[in-house]
């Protein structure tokens, strides 16, 4: 608890004149002009990590408790008496975005059709009416330019959220993301920070075709200076969105086209997740399954079958694609000694490939078997439904892989 | 904006030491007896050509003091670039080095028309623009030689000079990529209701980049106070402008955006145009300024600069249009300074540059731990943790 508030205490000077931390005052949005606003990074970390991983069968709400920050009514951090509210993933993203935009006037959104249209996946619906055209900006179809503009604005202290209508379109902005976004903090000797968030849906959808089914995490992962996170549930979508906006580093938030309509009950209290932490989905003993984004659901489906067959898989949603949360992963490997990576990225040069290398390098002594990595095939995603199904990893393949691994 | 401010132009940086002076804008007076504040009105060499807007008047208001400061600043920049040339040949500067001599009037004239709250962003030919925005000679040479005292701590190099307090946003290596960044700066200024403008400089080579037109389109739609300045030195590396652009009238290529063609070798014309553009952009949105200028060196130090143009052309421009010579003639004709005084200034400037180089040579190389600093604001990578995050496994050297 103490470390939690300690982290918060650093930020308060930039918000109100009183220096004492008061949970009731904490969320008064600051309307100061940019020149008076001081920087404050604020990431809520769980300091009760050990207890988090040992809990078996714990629902997500209870795991969230150490991270939740009480705001209105000064409700206690340690208990979740409120049941929370149910919403879909895109609504969770919107909630996170809206809360951050209320909290900080420097946050703005730019992208194609985010304003009047409400966002092609409804993530920004209603925000333009609420915050105005200068904070929710419709751009023309010019990814290179508006990503560059977002980065330029971030150099001065604004916190833009750039939306790519589909992650694949951000390939057009690759130069801006790689050279300017990732590297400016370094090449300027630390003079400029780029607190930008670049987000958008990617991944294989329902027969969207090759160009609209791209997984860009593998292309961006080598860029020094950026952080990458992938959300998979409404709970972590909102938390990661808020964390990404508050982060001083450029963050790329990967969403998935097929996950937008997931429904979940999330807490009413405000919470911000840590950008570098992985999520323990299902603790287990026999094998560690590492996954992220949509593949989490394929893994959980396979897990049901595996449990029936007598296996006890530990499922971790890595969430943070850059940097990897080697702490959580390492502890899991030390326990189970077998690793299966299930990802939607391409086999060649994907996140799984890097993760395999990282685990082998750091935890080689703990492995009883070679790491198995299930990824999508190295082909452009075909249109035909059956072919598309074979491109990505299916639950049956996961079950087979676990069975082979655990022999 | 979130940038910390210093008052416009006349306040000295506290990095100054008496010996190595920073660019003194409007402070050094050359004349001994006549009034230094004497206002002058001088006509530009050629009238402005306008596209979709009214051209500003040819008569420029200036003063003896200002002209003298122009002379000194440009002489300093010229000397600095020549010194960089020698350092490069001595292999103290490596990699790419793009020199600005011949184009000094653009940097100096622009600086005279704006305040430090306005933003300037340019491409890789940035040494002089950095100096104009308040950088020191020592920072320039230290950065070029890769030392810690450089403006980017030695980690940027010739193409990555930045100065946050001076409102100078770089220093960018990829051609044209700085223009969307510049429009983003203008967006931030509009967002914060700053009443300042952004000058996004690019070259005639970059003028054919798509992202420029994309950014211009967005800036015009959103009425951003962005001024796009094309420093047209007529050669995109080795390709002449008529071979690269179907329409080399860059000031017209904004189409809906107004444009102004300016003689970029005439510092007063540049000043007038930038002043005009600033007022214009704050009211009407983006405007393009085309500065007709010339570079004496090749594209970079690895380009001799004579394979695609004749030596006669280079010396012809040097004789007829050299920016420093023009100001020298003005100073002599208006009897603001004598020949000897101007020569003394040049000698002084030379000494200043030599001293700055000597100081920069004394500066340290970055430590190996600096390899990992400033990658992230939070500092990932400086320390590597083991699986138990409470134990620091290795502090990277």
Any overview of this molecule?
The complex is a heterodimer of chains A (407) and B (397). Chain A has 407 residues and is α/β, with parallel strands linked by helices. In chain A, the strands form four sheets. Chain A has a seven-stranded mixed sheet with strand order 4-3-5-6-8-7-14, sandwiched between helices. Chain A has a five-stranded mixed sheet with strand order 11-13-12-15-16, with helices on both faces. Chain A is globular. Chain A has 15 helices and 16 strands. Chain B is α/β, with parallel strands linked by helices and 397 residues long. Classes of the chains: A alpha/beta (407), B alpha/beta (397). At the A-B interface, helix 6, helix 7, helix 8 and helix 12 of A face helix 5 and helix 6 of B.
Helix and strand topology:
The complex is a heterodimer of chains A (407) and B (397).
Chain A: H1 2-11, H2 49-54, H3 60-64, E1 68-69, E2 85-88, H4 89-103, E3 107-111, H5 127-131, E4 136-138, H6 143-156, E5 159-163, H7 174-182, H8 184-187, E6 197-202, H9 217-220, E7 227-230, H10 234-246, E8 251-256, E9 263-266, E10 270-271, E11 279-282, E12 287-291, H11 295-308, E13 313-317, E14 320-322, H12 326-336, E15 339-346, H13 351-363, E16 372-376, H14 385-391, H15 395-405
Parallel strand pairs in A: 3-4, 3-5, 5-6, 6-8, 7-8, 12-13, 12-15, 15-16
Antiparallel strand pairs in A: 1-10, 2-9, 7-14, 11-13
Chain B: E1 39-43, E2 49-51, E3 59-63, H1 64-89, H2 104-113, E4 119-121, H3 127-132, H4 137-144, H5 178-191, E5 198-203, H6 210-222, E6 226-232, E7 235-236, E8 239-240, H7 241-244, E9 259-263, H8 267-284, E10 287-292, H9 311-321, H10 323-333, H11 339-362, E11 383-385, E12 392-395
Parallel strand pairs in B: 4-5, 5-6, 6-10, 9-10
Antiparallel strand pairs in B: 1-3, 2-9, 7-8, 11-12
Helix pairs in contact in B: 1-2, 1-10, 1-11, 2-8, 4-11, 5-6
């Amino acid at each position: 608890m103490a470390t939690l508030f300690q982290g918060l205490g650093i930020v308060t000077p930039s918000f109100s004149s009183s220096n004492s931390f008061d949970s009731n005052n904490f969320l008064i949005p600051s309307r100061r002009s940019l020149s008076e606003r001081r920087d404050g990074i604020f990431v809520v970390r769980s300091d009760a990590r050990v207890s988090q991983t040992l809990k078996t069968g714990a629902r997500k709400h209870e795991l969230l408790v150490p991270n939740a920050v009480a705001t209105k009514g000064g409700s206690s951090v340690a208990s979740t008496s409120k049941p929370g509210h149910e919403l879909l993933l895109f609504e969770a993203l919107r909630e996170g975005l809206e809360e951050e935009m209320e909290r900080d006037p420097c946050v703005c959104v730019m992208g194609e059709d985010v304003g009047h249209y409400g966002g092609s996946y409804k993530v920004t619906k209603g925000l333009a009416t609420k915050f105005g055209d200068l904070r929710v900006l419709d751009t023309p179809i010019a990814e290179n330019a508006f990503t560059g503009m977002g980065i330029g604005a971030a150099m001065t202290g604004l916190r833009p959220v750039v939306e790519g209508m589909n992650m694949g379109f951000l390939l057009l902005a690759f130069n801006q993301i790689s050279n300017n976004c990732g590297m400016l903090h370094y090449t300027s000797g630390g003079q400029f920070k780029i607190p930008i968030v670049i987000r958008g849906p990617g991944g294989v959808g329902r027969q969207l075709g090759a160009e609209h089914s791209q997984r860009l995490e593998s292309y961006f992962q080598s860029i020094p200076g950026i952080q990458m996170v992938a959300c998979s549930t409404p709970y972590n979508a909102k938390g990661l969105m808020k964390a990404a906006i508050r982060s001083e580093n450029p963050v790329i938030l990967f969403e998935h086209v097929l996950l937008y309509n997931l429904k979940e009950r999330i807490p009413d209290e405000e919470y911000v997740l840590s950008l570098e932490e992985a999520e323990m989905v299902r603790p287990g003993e026999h094998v560690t399954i590492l996954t992220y984004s949509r593949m989490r659901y394929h893994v959980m489906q396979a897990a049901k079958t595996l449990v029936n067959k007598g296996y006890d898989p530990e499922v971790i949603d890595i969430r943070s694609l850059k940097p990897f949360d080697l702490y959580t992963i390492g502890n899991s490997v030390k326990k189970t000694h077998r690793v299966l990576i299930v990802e939607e990225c391409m086999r060649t040069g994907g996140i799984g490939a890097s993760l395999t290398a990282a685990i082998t390098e750091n935890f080689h002594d703990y492995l009883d078997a070679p790491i198995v990595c299930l990824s999508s095939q190295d082909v452009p995603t075909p249109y035909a439904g059956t072919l598309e199904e074979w491109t990505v990893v299916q639950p049956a393949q996961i079950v087979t892989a676990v069975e082979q691994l655990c022999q | 904006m979130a940038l910390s401010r210093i008052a416009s132009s006349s306040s000295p940086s506290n990095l100054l030491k008496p010996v190595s002076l920073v660019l003194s804008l409007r402070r050094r007076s050359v004349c001994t007896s006549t009034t230094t504040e004497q206002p002058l009105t001088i006509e530009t060499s050629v009238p402005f050509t306008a596209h979709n807007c009214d051209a500003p008047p040819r008569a420029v208001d200036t003063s003896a003091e200002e002209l003298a400061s122009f002379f000194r600043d440009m002489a300093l920049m010229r000397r600095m670039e020549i010194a960089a040339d020698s350092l490069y040949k001595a292999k103290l500067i490596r990699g790419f080095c793009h020199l600005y001599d011949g184009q000094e009037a653009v940097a100096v004239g622009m600086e005279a028309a704006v305040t430090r709250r306005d933003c300037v962003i340019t491409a890789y030919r940035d040494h002089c623009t950095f100096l104009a925005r308040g950088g020191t000679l020592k920072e320039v040479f230290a950065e070029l030689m890769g030392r810690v005292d450089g403006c980017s701590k030695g980690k940027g190099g010739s193409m990555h000079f930045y100065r946050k307090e001076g409102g100078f946003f770089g220093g960018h290596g990829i051609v044209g990529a700085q223009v969307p960044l510049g429009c983003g700066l203008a967006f931030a200024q509009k967002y914060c209701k700053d009443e300042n403008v952004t000058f996004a400089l690019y070259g005639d080579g970059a003028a054919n980049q798509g992202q420029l037109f994309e950014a211009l389109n967005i800036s015009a739609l959103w009425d951003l106070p962005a001024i796009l300045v094309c420093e047209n030195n007529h050669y995109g590396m080795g390709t002449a402008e008529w071979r690269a652009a179907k329409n080399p009238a860059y000031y017209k290529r904004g189409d809906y955006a107004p444009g102004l063609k300016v003689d970029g070798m005439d510092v007063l014309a540049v000043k007038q145009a930038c002043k005009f553009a600033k007022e214009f952009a704050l009211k009407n949105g983006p405007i393009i300024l085309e500065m007709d200028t010339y570079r004496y060196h090749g594209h970079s130090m690895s380009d001799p600069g004579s394979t695609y143009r004749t030596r006669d052309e280079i010396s012809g421009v040097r004789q007829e249009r050299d920016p420093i010579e023009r100001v020298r003639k003005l100073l002599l004709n208006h009897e603001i300074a004598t020949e000897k005084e101007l020569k003394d200034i040049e000698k002084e400037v030379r000494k200043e540059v030599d001293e700055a180089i000597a100081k920069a040579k004394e500066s340290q190389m970055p430590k190996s731990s600096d390899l990992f600093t400033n990658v992230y604001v939070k500092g990932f990578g400086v320390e590597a943790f083991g699986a138990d995050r409470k134990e620091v496994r290795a502090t990277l050297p």
